[in-house]
Task: inverse folding
């Protein structure tokens, strides 16, 4: 089963995503902020990384950027969950190297479908 | 011929002179000739006599020589002697012949005869005989002959005769010389006499000429003099004469004739002229008078001029007044004087003492003189006895004149009054009118300076207004040079004084501005457009100005147009930094809020979807439901915060203020927060008993909710949250202290600004709207409180809230009075708890309250404070009861109209109303019941124009 890293500072949202994905059998690693997520990324490879945008210590965007540049993990699939869904924000995320983007609030079903598509591609 | 001489004086003179010279020369020549002739004839005679003498001499010599030679012969016998004798004999004979021929006088003839006789005898007889004797040697005969016959004797006789003749001739010569001398002297005398005669003739001639020329001329001159002296002359002498004098006389006569002919005409003309002259004299007299008047006027003008000059050189009113009065006293030859300006009761004086001035200032404004001056607008003189101080050492009584001159404005109003005093004399009518003329000048000066003061005041006001405006304002001319600028603009330009900018040229100030602006070309283009364009209304431009603080400036311009001509441009620089920042914050806020809203929304939507789409165990369902509930609650409070901000911004937030103890409010907040903050310890430290606050319970709760939740949020590692309550003289102070992240110093200033969030990565996971502290501050402010913060980064923060100390509501009357100064309603009630309740109710309505528990005290204060209403209990502490109080109040003229509400447990309503009570409430009753009945009465009273019922809660809306 695919291995996913979930980085989200809001405990409740983390629980929501976790419950949604675990029920489907994905193997989830959790991080409570960007720094923690980056540390995990430097140690492990994941099939998919789901990052909240607004996190303490390091934003999702910074994590993506650093992963691509510093850890040189160019092929790792990375998705950003964000309340910021302005066109300009998406552009910036794409530039930083994020492959996928999902805006808050999101539907758990939709999240599952998107993840399914990403992983089967 | 005669006429020829008569026609010319010159000819006459020449002729007379010629005749005279001729006579003189002729006389002198003939005299000379006579003299020469005389001398010559005498000299001839003398020479004749002289030749006679020569003859005698020769004869004598010859005779002697003969004698000598003859004796030589006789002695020596030499024939040579005889030859010599022969020569001599011939010579003698020649001489004798010459003599005979030349001299014929008797004496001469006689001599000649004698000599001839001798010679004949001697040579013809004696000598030959002697020779013979010699030759014969007959010496004796010879001697005989010479002695006896007398030979020698004859010779001597002849010699004697010659001598005699010589003497005679000599005598004759001498007589001739004598004669000559006599004749010469005679001729000299004649000569001298002639000369004398000629001189006399000359004098006579001169006299004659004088008579001929001088006399007539003198006569003509006399006539001329006579004419000159005005005599009438009919005859002029010597007109018949042919010479120059005649001509002169004739001409003179002609002249006289013509002069005399003209005289009549001249006299006539003269008379006319005389008449004209009289007229002229008259005119001249008039002119002189006019000149005199002009001179006087000129003097007056000069005086006025120097007066005006001296009073027109100042813009200081005091100085002007001093100058006016001192000049006026001088010009009017007064001893002292004062000028008094109505506006401001201001004076300046000369020669007056301080007390005299004060007296004048005090009494003159009410004096009859002033009234009179105002009515007539004319000067007024008062004659009076000189005062003691004016008289000095003089004892006799004399008069002094006080002249009151009104200074009248252009609007015919009395501006000021000038009083001058002449000690010992008065002012004449002319003087008074002259001084009134000066008074007009004074009025002009005064009006001018008043105008100046007014405009100066306006100018200063304008300047102050300009400088107090928060916009930078700059007035520039059409070339772009600064005409004036205000303080704020000066600040933007980093200068100290707006005056420094005045007259600064376009290049200079725009350069100074450009140096500090990022997008200078756009700004410059805007300014240039503003300066040169005629119509630019509504255009504005925004730029950032660097400096100590970066400012955002909005600039707009308005043309200054007067009579269709553009005078310049007003450029306004609005500092919109605040608005700009607020704008920035607002858009940031929108982002933040959307983020903050999306997070709980995600939870609500997500978990709901899960519950709807999946089969879940009951525990999980409950967990999800709890979460959904929590998140929905979070959404609500977010929205509430947002609404609060909106309300506070629009000023429509309402506060329901009541007296509360702060302690239970804080306790409740901590109880709520304890649930979410399981990492944290909570501690309350109470150090005061004065815990009362007057405020809105919910809002106060919100203050501490925010502060305590912040304390929890910003100490993510946990720790103790300490709430400490204490007080000082004026404030109840509450500290909320955490041991969290702390706040950077740079952020503290903005901490209470709306939408502000400390931008720090540590805080990103800490949610919030950025509104919490802004709301807190606003609420504290409405409660007359203050909030502040101290923080050390990494060690935690302490927020301190101060509220004004609220005295225990059940306070005694005197304390309430001290604070109040004034009371709208007085409560007389011995039940302090009830009094407190009523007070609280009424204060909320905006009334000011004073409480008393004794009737006697209340009565005193009621008279003083004149309250709008009185609430009266019947059973009171002290001597008086309520019935007595109401009776006393109704009996007093000053207090009988104050409405009285009786609040009592006694059921005696009729008695109360009968005594004049406006309302009667029987305890227990709702305080609001009392309030509304009071309001009812007061409103009715207001309709009758007495009082103003305070607006509800107006004391809360400062």
Result:
């Amino acid at each position: 089963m695919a291995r996913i890293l979930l980085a989200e500072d809001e405990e409740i949202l983390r629980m929501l995503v976790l419950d949604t994905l675990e029920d489907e059998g994905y193997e989830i690693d959790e991080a409570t902020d960007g720094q923690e997520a980056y540390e995990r990324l430097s140690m492990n490879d994941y099939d998919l990384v789901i990052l909240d945008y607004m996190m303490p210590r390091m934003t999702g965007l910074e994590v993506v950027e650093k992963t691509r540049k510093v850890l040189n993990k160019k092929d790792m699939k990375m998705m950003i969950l964000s309340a910021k869904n302005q066109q300009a924000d998406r552009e910036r995320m794409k530039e930083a190297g994020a492959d996928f983007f999902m805006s808050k609030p999101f539907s758990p079903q939709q999240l599952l479908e998107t993840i399914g598509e990403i992983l089967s591609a | 011929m005669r006429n020829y001489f008569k026609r010319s004086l010159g000819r006459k003179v020449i002729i007379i002179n010629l005749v005279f010279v001729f006579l003189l020369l002729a006389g002198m020549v003939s005299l000379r000739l006579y003299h020469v002739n005389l001398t010559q004839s005498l000299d001839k005679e003398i020479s004749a006599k002289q030749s006679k003498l020569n003859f005698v001499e020769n004869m004598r010599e010859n005779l002697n020589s003969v004698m000598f030679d003859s004796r030589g012969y006789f002695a020596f016998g030499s024939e040579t002697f005889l030859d010599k004798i022969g020569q001599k004999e011939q010579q003698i004979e020649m001489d004798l012949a010459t003599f005979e021929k030349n001299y014929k006088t008797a004496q001469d003839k006689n001599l000649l005869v004698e000599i001839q006789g001798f010679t004949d005898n001697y040579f013809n007889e004696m000598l030959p005989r002697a020779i013979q004797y010699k030759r014969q040697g007959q010496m004796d005969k010879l001697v005989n002959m010479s002695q006896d016959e007398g030979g020698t004797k004859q010779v001597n006789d002849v010699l004697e005769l010659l001598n005699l003749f010589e003497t005679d001739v000599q005598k004759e010569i001498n007589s001739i010389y004598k004669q000559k001398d006599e004749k010469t002297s005679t001729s000299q005398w004649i000569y001298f006499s002639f000369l004398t005669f000629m001189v006399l003739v000359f004098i006579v001639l001169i006299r004659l000429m004088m008579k001929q020329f001088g006399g007539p001329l003198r006569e003509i001159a006399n006539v001329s003099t006579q004419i000159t002296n005005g005599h009438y002359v009919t005859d002029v002498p010597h007109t018949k004469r042919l010479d120059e004098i005649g001509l002169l006389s004739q001409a003179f006569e002609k002249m006289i004739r013509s002069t005399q002919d003209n005289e009549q005409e001249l006299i006539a003309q003269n008379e006319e002229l005389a008449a004209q002259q009289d007229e002229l004299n008259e005119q001249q007299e008039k002119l002189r008078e006019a000149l005199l008047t002009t001179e006087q006027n000129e003097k007056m003008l000069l005086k006025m001029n120097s007066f005006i000059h001296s009073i027109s050189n100042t813009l200081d009113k005091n100085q002007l007044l001093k100058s006016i009065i001192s000049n006026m006293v001088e010009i009017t030859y007064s001893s002292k004087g004062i000028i008094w300006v109505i506006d401001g009761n201001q004076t300046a004086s000369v020669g007056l003492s301080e007390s005299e001035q004060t007296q004048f200032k005090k009494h003159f404004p009410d004096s009859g003189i002033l009234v009179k001056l105002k009515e007539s607008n004319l000067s007024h003189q008062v004659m009076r006895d000189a005062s003691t101080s004016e008289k000095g050492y003089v004892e006799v009584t004399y008069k002094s004149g006080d002249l009151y001159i009104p200074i009248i404005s252009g609007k015919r109003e009395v501006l000021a009054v000038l009083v001058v005093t002449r000690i010992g004399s008065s002012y004449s009518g002319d003087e008074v009118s002259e001084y009134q003329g000066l008074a007009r000048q004074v009025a002009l000066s005064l009006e001018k300076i008043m105008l100046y003061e007014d405009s100066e005041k306006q100018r200063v006001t304008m300047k102050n207004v300009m400088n107090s405006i928060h916009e930078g304002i700059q007035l520039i001319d059409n070339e772009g040079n600064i005409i004036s600028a205000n303080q704020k603009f000066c600040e933007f330009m980093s200068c100290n004084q707006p005056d420094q900018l005045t007259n600064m040229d376009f290049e200079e100030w725009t350069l100074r501005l450009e140096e500090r602006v990022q997008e200078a070309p756009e700004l410059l283009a805007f300014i240039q457009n503003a300066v040169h364009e005629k119509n630019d209304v509504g255009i504005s431009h925004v730029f950032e100005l660097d400096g100590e603080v970066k400012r955002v400036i909005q600039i707009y311009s308005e043309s200054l147009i007067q009579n269709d001509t553009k005078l310049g441009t007003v450029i306004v620089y609005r500092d919109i930094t605040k608005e700009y920042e607020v704008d920035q914050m607002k858009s940031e806020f929108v982002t933040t809020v959307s983020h903050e809203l999306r997070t709980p929304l995600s939870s609500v939507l997500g978990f709901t979807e899960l519950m709807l789409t999946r089969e879940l165990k009951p525990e999980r369902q409950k967990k999800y439901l709890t979460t959904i509930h929590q998140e929905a609650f979070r959404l609500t409070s977010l929205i509430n915060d947002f609404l609060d901000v909106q309300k506070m911004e629009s000023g429509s937030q309402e506060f329901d203020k009541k007296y509360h103890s702060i302690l239970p409010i804080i306790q409740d907040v901590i109880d709520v927060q304890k649930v979410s903050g399981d990492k944290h310890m909570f501690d309350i430290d109470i150090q005061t008993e004065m815990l009362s606050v007057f405020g809105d319970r919910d809002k106060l709760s919100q203050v501490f909710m925010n502060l305590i939740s912040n304390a929890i949020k910003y100490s993510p590692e946990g720790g103790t949250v300490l709430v400490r309550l204490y007080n000082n003289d004026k404030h109840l102070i509450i500290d909320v202290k955490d041991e969290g992240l702390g706040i950077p110093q740079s952020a503290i200033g903005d901490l209470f600004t709306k939408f502000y969030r400390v931008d720090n990565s540590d805080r990103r996971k800490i949610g919030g709207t950025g509104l919490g502290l802004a709301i807190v501050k606003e609420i504290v402010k409405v409660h007359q409180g203050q909030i502040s913060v101290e923080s050390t980064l990494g060690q935690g923060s302490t927020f301190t809230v101060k509220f004004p100390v609220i005295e225990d509501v059940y306070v005694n009357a005197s304390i309430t009075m001290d604070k109040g100064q004034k009371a709208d309603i007085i409560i007389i009630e011995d039940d302090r708890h009830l009094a407190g309740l009523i007070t609280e109710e009424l204060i909320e309505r905006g009334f000011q309250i004073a409480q008393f528990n004794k009737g006697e005290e209340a009565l005193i204060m009621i008279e003083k404070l004149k309250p709008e209403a009185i609430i009266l209990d019947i059973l009171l502490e002290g001597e008086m009861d309520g019935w007595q109080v109401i009776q006393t109040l109704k009996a007093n003229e000053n207090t009988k109209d104050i409405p009285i509400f009786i609040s009592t447990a006694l059921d005696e309503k009729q008695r109360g109303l009968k005594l004049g009570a406006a309302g009667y409430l029987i305890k227990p009753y709702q305080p609001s019941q009392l309030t509304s009945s009071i309001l009812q009465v007061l409103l009715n009273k207001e309709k009758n124009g007495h009082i103003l019922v305070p607006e509800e809660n107006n004391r809360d809306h400062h």
In short: The longest strand of chain A covers residues 77-82.
